[in-house]
Each structure stands twice: as structure tokens, then as C-alpha cells.
Specification:
Blueprint lengths: L2 H23 L5 H8 L3 H19 L16 H56 L1
């Protein structure tokens, strides 16, 4: 069965249920007769009746006009604590990066100094060798 036909069949059944519920509520028939007409138990009939009356009440309530307001952004305690924790971690990482830069520059200067000393020592050795020959 295709979807449009199935939907029409469901709507027809819903209208039949609504018609019988209105007849029972207006006193034209009893709940037992209504249940029998729908082919269900009285318990199921009352379940349908309560659902239908509840939907009717919901549909008849006054509603605010216009678009609903957007909910305001609220930061709860968990979000704030998480944010504070992330800020602390960020500060720690920045300090670590700064220290890493200092250590890198120190090691670079140390290597340059050792390189200079190595060149001086090799130059002196070369002179001595050239002087002896």
C-alpha cells in the first residue's frame, strides 16, 4: 500500500474514532457501545478518549504570538571551571614555550662558543705544524 493511501486510511479511522468519542461524550451512546463500535475494549476506548481530549485541550490553549525568544546563553559552573582550567593550562604551556626558547638560545650560544674555541685550537695547532716543517 502506498503512503498517501495509507495516510488517508489512517485519517478515516481517526475521524471515526473522534465521531464515536463525541457521541459518547454527548450521551448519544455509552462507552461500552462506543468500544464495541470501534472493535476495542473499554480500556482501550478510554485510553483513546483521554488522548483525544488532551490533544483538544492542548490545541485550544492560548499561545504567544510571534517567534519564540531565543534562549539566553548561560554559563553554568561546570563550563566556567573548564574554562578556568583551560586558561591555566594555556598559561603553563606559554611558560614552557618561553623556557624552551631560553634553553634553545643558551644551547645555541654554548655551541657557538665551543665552535669558536675549536677553531682557535685548530689554528694554533696548524701554526705549530707549519713552523716545525
Amino acid at each position: 500500500m502506498s503512503t498517501p493511501k495509507k495516510k488517508l486510511k489512517q485519517e478515516k479511522k481517526a475521524r471515526q474514532r473522534a465521531d464515536i468519542i463525541m457521541k459518547v461524550r454527548s450521551g448519544i451512546m455509552t462507552a461500552t457501545q462506543g468500544a464495541a463500535a470501534l472493535g476495542v475494549s473499554r480500556k482501550t476506548y478510554y485510553k483513546w478518549e483521554n488522548r483525544a481530549l488532551g490533544a483538544m485541550l492542548d490545541g485550544l490553549e492560548n499561545r504567544d504570538t510571534g517567534r519564540p525568544e531565543l534562549p539566553e546563553f548561560s554559563q553554568d559552573e561546570v563550563t566556567l571551571k573548564k574554562l578556568e582550567e583551560l586558561q591555566k593550562q594555556n598559561e603553563l604551556l606559554e611558560k614552557k614555550m618561553e623556557l624552551a626558547g631560553i634553553v634553545y638560545r643558551f644551547e645555541l650560544e654554548k655551541a657557538k662558543e665551543q665552535n669558536r674555541k675549536g677553531k682557535k685550537a685548530s689554528t694554533k695547532k696548524k701554526k705549530k705544524r707549519t713552523g716545525r716543517s
